[in-house]
Amino acid sequence: MLPTTSRPVRAAAAALALLALAAAVALTQCAAGPARSTPSVRALTVATWNMCGVRQWHCEHTGDRDAKQRALKWLATTGGARVMLVQEACAGDMEAVREDLGRSWHTAFRAYTWRDGGGRIATVRCAGRGQGAAGHGILSAEPLSDVRSVPTQQPTVGVRRGVLCATVAAVDVRVCGAHLSPPGSDRAHSGWEFRDDQLRALVAAVPARRTVYGGDLNVGPPHERNPDAGVWPAAPYRTHRECDQATAAARTGRATHASGHKLDYLFTGLPKSRCQVRDTGASDHRALLIRVRTG
């Protein structure tokens, strides 16, 4: 007959079992607790960069096609940009970068056009073989929806640029990339100003909060020393905040162009956590990157 276990031993065994059960419950609570109580913070990095990819627009000394494609990919792979607003790009380069980044990336592109004195409109082409149309666009690691061009006043004779918007549904953020007309853009009316109307149209196209918008706006910040400050509407610096805007009253920022001026901007109504200015070495414009909290 098997020996019976004494009462003290059985009591000790029961106590050990209870301790083990309590430890297991405690471990389960520790593991499960944070997952329930600490929500993940969602963030989005958006970049804007004028590639200076249209060589006939005084860009022949800013790097070759391969260098520009590498720089654009770097903004995504190292810079962490999940959305990129790109100006002075060639359609072929945009598509090549999208393919290199992977099947999850998406593009939206609008060609620049030229309107002559007779009212005829033609697409501006890049000079290199296989580069296609010159224009501006959006590269996104997430699908883009509700892609549309924003109607704006454009030169009667000359290059017509534009504003392009899309929704990144994965984070519920409306993004808009703009390339505004610099002074003298209208060959028939050199004194006409277009940036004021174009800025108003850009601001009217975005929501108050869940947006990131900007691009090459071809104008300095609206501080008192800028003679062109009057083209700015109030919303970009009041309703929204610019990437490099240090305080609510600030109207300056780091230079983004080789001339020493700030021409490139990113505005948002979301909380921003970082702003970077990056020299890609492949353009006369530096890239601007903003990180915002979307959760």
UniProtKB/TrEMBL annotation:
The keyword Signal applies. Residues 47-285 form the Endonuclease/exonuclease/phosphatase domain. Keywords: Endonuclease, Exonuclease, Hydrolase, Nuclease, Signal. Gene3D superfamilies: Endonuclease/exonuclease/phosphatase. GO terms for molecular function: endonuclease activity; exonuclease activity. InterPro entries: Endo/exonu/phosph_ase_sf (IPR036691), Endo/exonuclease/phosphatase (IPR005135). Residues 1-31 form the signal peptide. This is Endonuclease/exonuclease/phosphatase family protein. It comes from Streptomyces ferrugineus. The lineage of its organism: Bacteria, Bacillati, Actinomycetota, Actinomycetes, Kitasatosporales.
